[in-house]
Protein backbone atom coordinates (compact mmCIF):
# COMPACT_ATOMS: atom_id res chain seq x y z
CA UNK A 1 0.00 0.00 0.00
CA UNK A 2 1.16 3.42 -0.80
CA UNK A 3 1.11 6.12 1.82
CA UNK A 4 -0.94 8.94 0.47
CA UNK A 5 -0.23 12.35 1.83
CA UNK A 6 -3.35 13.90 3.17
CA UNK A 7 -3.59 17.46 1.99
CA UNK A 8 -6.28 19.44 3.63
CA UNK A 9 -6.59 23.14 3.49
CA UNK A 10 -8.88 25.41 5.45
CA UNK A 11 -9.86 28.78 4.07
CA UNK A 12 -11.66 31.34 6.23
CA UNK A 13 -12.92 34.59 4.76
CA UNK A 14 -13.79 37.72 6.72
CA UNK A 15 -16.51 39.94 5.33
CA UNK A 16 -17.67 43.31 6.54
CA UNK A 17 -20.79 45.32 5.81
CA UNK A 18 -24.24 46.24 7.01
CA UNK A 19 -26.30 44.39 4.41
CA UNK A 20 -25.78 41.77 1.73
CA UNK A 21 -25.58 44.54 -0.88
CA UNK A 22 -22.76 46.33 0.94
CA UNK A 23 -20.53 43.37 1.87
CA UNK A 24 -16.83 43.48 1.12
CA UNK A 25 -14.17 40.88 1.81
CA UNK A 26 -11.65 42.21 4.30
CA UNK A 27 -9.38 39.19 4.90
CA UNK A 28 -8.63 35.61 3.85
CA UNK A 29 -7.01 33.18 6.27
CA UNK A 30 -5.54 30.03 4.70
CA UNK A 31 -4.27 27.17 6.86
CA UNK A 32 -2.85 23.78 6.00
CA UNK A 33 -0.76 21.27 7.89
CA UNK A 34 2.45 22.95 6.79
CA UNK A 35 1.52 26.61 6.36
CA UNK A 36 -0.62 29.46 7.58
CA UNK A 37 -1.22 32.75 5.78
CA UNK A 38 -3.30 35.85 6.21
CA UNK A 39 -4.13 38.13 3.31
CA UNK A 40 -5.84 41.42 4.09
CA UNK A 41 -7.92 42.97 1.34
CA UNK A 42 -7.98 46.41 2.93
CA UNK A 43 -5.00 48.48 3.87
CA UNK A 44 -4.64 49.43 7.54
CA UNK A 45 -5.66 52.98 6.68
CA UNK A 46 -8.93 51.83 5.10
CA UNK A 47 -9.62 49.53 8.02
CA UNK A 48 -9.11 52.33 10.55
CA UNK A 49 -11.16 54.71 8.40
CA UNK A 50 -14.00 52.19 8.22
CA UNK A 51 -13.96 51.65 12.00
CA UNK A 52 -14.08 55.40 12.62
CA UNK A 53 -17.00 55.80 10.21
CA UNK A 54 -18.84 52.91 11.90
CA UNK A 55 -18.47 54.71 15.23
CA UNK A 56 -19.86 58.04 13.99
CA UNK A 57 -22.44 57.30 11.28
CA UNK A 58 -25.63 55.23 11.41
CA UNK A 59 -25.58 51.62 10.28
CA UNK A 60 -26.07 51.32 6.55
CA UNK A 61 -24.78 54.82 5.86
CA UNK A 62 -25.30 56.47 3.33
CA UNK A 63 -28.33 54.52 2.09
CA UNK A 64 -30.00 54.45 5.53
CA UNK A 65 -30.23 58.24 5.93
CA UNK A 66 -31.89 61.10 4.07
CA UNK A 67 -29.82 63.36 1.78
CA UNK A 68 -29.83 66.20 4.31
CA UNK A 69 -28.13 64.07 7.00
CA UNK A 70 -24.51 65.03 6.19
CA UNK A 71 -25.09 68.82 5.94
CA UNK A 72 -27.11 68.68 9.17
CA UNK A 73 -24.34 66.77 10.97
CA UNK A 74 -21.70 69.23 9.74
CA UNK A 75 -23.66 72.23 11.05
CA UNK A 76 -24.58 70.39 14.26
CA UNK A 77 -20.92 69.53 14.89
CA UNK A 78 -19.85 73.12 14.26
CA UNK A 79 -22.54 74.33 16.66
CA UNK A 80 -21.34 71.85 19.29
CA UNK A 81 -17.75 72.98 18.84
CA UNK A 82 -18.69 76.65 19.13
CA UNK A 83 -20.72 75.92 22.28
CA UNK A 84 -17.71 74.13 23.77
CA UNK A 85 -15.43 77.09 22.98
CA UNK A 86 -17.94 79.60 24.40
CA UNK A 87 -18.30 77.52 27.57
CA UNK A 88 -14.53 77.38 27.97
CA UNK A 89 -14.19 81.14 27.47
CA UNK A 90 -17.04 81.97 29.86
CA UNK A 91 -15.58 79.66 32.53
CA UNK A 92 -12.20 81.35 32.10
CA UNK A 93 -13.85 84.76 32.45
CA UNK A 94 -15.69 83.66 35.59
CA UNK A 95 -12.61 82.19 37.21
CA UNK A 96 -10.56 85.31 36.56
CA UNK A 97 -13.41 87.52 37.79
CA UNK A 98 -13.68 85.71 41.12
CA UNK A 99 -9.96 86.13 41.59
CA UNK A 100 -8.37 82.85 40.63
CA UNK A 101 -4.66 83.54 40.18
CA UNK A 102 -4.62 86.77 42.19
CA UNK A 103 -2.83 87.09 45.51
CA UNK A 104 -5.60 89.16 47.08
CA UNK A 105 -8.37 86.61 46.38
CA UNK A 106 -9.44 84.18 49.07
CA UNK A 107 -10.55 80.62 48.49
CA UNK A 108 -13.62 81.03 50.69
CA UNK A 109 -14.71 84.16 48.79
CA UNK A 110 -14.38 82.47 45.41
CA UNK A 111 -16.16 79.35 46.69
CA UNK A 112 -19.03 81.39 48.12
CA UNK A 113 -19.53 83.31 44.86
CA UNK A 114 -19.46 80.07 42.86
CA UNK A 115 -21.94 78.53 45.32
CA UNK A 116 -24.34 81.48 44.98
CA UNK A 117 -24.11 81.26 41.19
CA UNK A 118 -24.92 77.52 41.14
CA UNK A 119 -27.62 77.83 43.81
CA UNK A 120 -29.40 80.53 41.81
CA UNK A 121 -29.35 78.31 38.72
CA UNK A 122 -30.72 75.29 40.59
CA UNK A 123 -33.43 77.33 42.27
CA UNK A 124 -34.39 78.87 38.91
CA UNK A 125 -34.63 75.40 37.36
CA UNK A 126 -36.94 74.21 40.13
CA UNK A 127 -39.19 77.26 39.85
CA UNK A 128 -39.28 77.00 36.06
CA UNK A 129 -40.29 73.34 36.34
CA UNK A 130 -43.00 74.19 38.85
CA UNK A 131 -44.58 76.89 36.69
CA UNK A 132 -43.98 75.62 33.14
CA UNK A 133 -43.34 71.87 33.41
CA UNK A 134 -46.73 70.75 32.10
CA UNK A 135 -46.65 73.21 29.15
CA UNK A 136 -43.43 71.86 27.60
CA UNK A 137 -45.02 68.90 25.81
CA UNK A 138 -47.40 70.97 23.70
CA UNK A 139 -44.76 73.07 21.96
CA UNK A 140 -41.40 71.30 22.29
CA UNK A 141 -39.69 72.98 19.30
CA UNK A 142 -40.47 76.45 20.61
CA UNK A 143 -39.18 75.55 24.07
CA UNK A 144 -36.00 74.05 22.57
CA UNK A 145 -35.39 77.35 20.77
CA UNK A 146 -36.06 79.28 23.99
CA UNK A 147 -33.64 76.99 25.86
CA UNK A 148 -30.87 77.58 23.29
CA UNK A 149 -31.46 81.33 23.42
CA UNK A 150 -31.41 81.35 27.23
CA UNK A 151 -28.18 79.32 27.23
CA UNK A 152 -26.56 81.82 24.86
CA UNK A 153 -27.72 84.75 27.01
CA UNK A 154 -26.35 83.04 30.13
CA UNK A 155 -22.94 82.47 28.53
CA UNK A 156 -22.86 86.07 27.28
CA UNK A 157 -23.56 87.29 30.82
CA UNK A 158 -20.71 85.13 32.12
CA UNK A 159 -18.37 86.57 29.51
CA UNK A 160 -19.38 90.16 30.31
CA UNK A 161 -19.39 89.80 34.12
CA UNK A 162 -15.69 90.68 34.61
CA UNK A 163 -16.32 94.04 32.90
CA UNK A 164 -18.69 95.10 35.71
CA UNK A 165 -16.96 94.21 39.00
CA UNK A 166 -19.49 96.06 41.17
CA UNK A 167 -22.39 94.04 39.73
CA UNK A 168 -20.41 90.83 39.18
CA UNK A 169 -22.40 88.59 41.51
CA UNK A 170 -25.78 89.76 40.19
CA UNK A 171 -24.73 89.27 36.55
CA UNK A 172 -23.27 85.82 37.23
CA UNK A 173 -26.39 84.71 39.12
CA UNK A 174 -28.66 85.94 36.31
CA UNK A 175 -26.47 84.10 33.78
CA UNK A 176 -26.71 80.90 35.80
CA UNK A 177 -30.46 81.34 36.07
CA UNK A 178 -30.68 81.79 32.31
CA UNK A 179 -28.60 78.67 31.61
CA UNK A 180 -30.65 76.58 34.04
CA UNK A 181 -33.60 76.64 31.62
CA UNK A 182 -31.56 74.96 28.90
CA UNK A 183 -30.23 72.34 31.35
CA UNK A 184 -33.76 71.60 32.47
CA UNK A 185 -34.95 71.16 28.89
CA UNK A 186 -32.02 68.85 28.00
CA UNK A 187 -32.79 66.68 31.04
CA UNK A 188 -36.47 66.61 30.11
CA UNK A 189 -35.69 65.43 26.56
CA UNK A 190 -33.40 62.67 27.90
CA UNK A 191 -36.11 61.62 30.38
CA UNK A 192 -38.83 61.55 27.69
CA UNK A 193 -36.68 59.45 25.35
CA UNK A 194 -36.01 56.98 28.15
CA UNK A 195 -32.23 57.19 27.76
Automatic annotation (TrEMBL):
Transmembrane segments: 114-133, 153-177
Location in or out of the cell: Membrane
GO cellular component: membrane
Keywords from the named record: Membrane, Transmembrane, Transmembrane helix
Primary location group: membrane
Residue ranges of domain Protein root UVB sensitive/RUS in the record: 46-183
Sequence similarity: Belongs to the RUS1 family.
PANTHER family attached to this UniProt entry: RUS FAMILY MEMBER 1 (PTHR12770:SF31), RUS1 FAMILY PROTEIN C16ORF58 (PTHR12770)
Protein name (database record): Protein root UVB sensitive/RUS domain-containing protein
Organism of provenance: Nelumbo nucifera (Sacred lotus)
Amino acid sequence: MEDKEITSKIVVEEWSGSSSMKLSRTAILTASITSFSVHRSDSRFNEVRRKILEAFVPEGFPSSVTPDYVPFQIWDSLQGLSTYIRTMLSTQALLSAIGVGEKSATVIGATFQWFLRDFTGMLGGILFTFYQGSNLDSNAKMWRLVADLMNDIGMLMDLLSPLFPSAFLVIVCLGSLSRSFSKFFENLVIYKRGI
